UniProtKB/TrEMBL annotation:
The gene is secE. This is Protein translocase subunit SecE. It is found in: Cell membrane; Membrane. HAMAP family: SecE (MF_00422). Its main location: membrane. The keyword Aminoacyl-tRNA synthetase does not apply. Coiled coil: none annotated. It comes from Spirosoma montaniterrae. Essential subunit of the Sec protein translocation channel SecYEG. Clamps together the 2 halves of SecY. May contact the channel plug during translocation.
Amino acid sequence: MDKFIAFLKASWEEVQHNVTWPKFSDLQSSSTLVLVASLIFALMVGLIDLVFENALNAFYQSF
């Protein structure tokens, strides 16, 4: 248990003194980039799904 407490203390010390936190504007721009990329990816996957669904429906109705 002493090792675990020492680990927590060392970790907290590291976070307080040695970690450089990004600026809020950097976080905001990164979040916007992730949101836009996620939306583009979702639209692409949805479009591919729609194309495959229509293609398979056309294929199955041909029989």
